[in-house]
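Checklist before submission:
- one chain only
- standard amino acids only
- sequence pasted in full

Submission:
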Amino acid sequence: MKAYVLKSESNGATLELREKPTPQPSASQLLVKIHAASMNRGELIRGHGLVKAGAEKPAGMDCAGEVVGTGEKVMGRLPGAFAEYGLMDKQDAIPMPPNLSWEEAAAIPITFNVVYDMLVQQGNLKAGEWLLVTGVTAGVGVAALQAGKALGAKVMGTSGSAAKLAALKKIGLDVALQTRKPDFADAVMKATDGKGVNLVVNNVGGTVFAECIKCMAYEGRLATVGYLDHTLKAEIDLAALQQVRAYRRHVVTHVPPLRVAVERPGQRPRVEIANGADPYAHGMAVKRPSRSTAENPAASMLRRTSSSGARRWPSGASSEAVTLSRSSAPNVSATCASFGP
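Returned file contents:
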């Protein structure tokens, strides 16, 4: 049979046609007569200088075709799919929907399996949440957009092409950000009313990693799937992580308001859920207590004070902030109560 191999060179990659024997399936495999195979960006990584020149491997990663012996139409992952025949693990075989062409079916398996893993199995994306996709006009980006909309999420994406973003608006892209640079965090925060996005799919790589962190909501998730920028390393912005953890928590609906009651000297404060309090109102301020009671909607912002210093809540909240310290309130020690899924 005829089959292609992908060979890495110093300045790119080439396809070479070879004659190879028809493979024989094991008990766990299917012999597939291949009608169409898709090209994935991962196939070309060897030409990006990420693998030394001279290496080669069978070309193709997924396909659509007919099972030899039964005629069943299947699509799925198949290493070496740029060939007349190939071996597909039975567990990877997906029945081919009748409304798809061979080419359409071949383009689906790996891309949408990756997207399913990021959005559902790992990302836990839910209806009404925000999804940000960098490089949204690439193959995985478009698939993430389609899957996100199918799940009921709101989707925004970045791309340098205005024309491609306009095309994606027609299939559900809610917010289009025309940029190839790490400069989109402000626009993302504005679109989400300062809350950030619940899931980021980083399809670009290391150059936008820190910017993606800045875009995340409290309990946000980040999936890195590609490196279109050829950058495999990135610094972690610890200040941005702290901001996500602390300053955005007050906008999360499941965090209940708390009532902190200080009773007798020497006792720990009693922390209770305060019925009827507004969980959104100035969530990062401890309101000045009347006698022994204070309310704080952001549970995890209540920190144990040190023996020598004082903890002040972040500035900017309209309620007057109170300093909790052993020197000013020797009988008070703040406890940390965390509420989350």
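Reviewer check: The CA atoms of residues 165 and 176 lie 6 Å apart.
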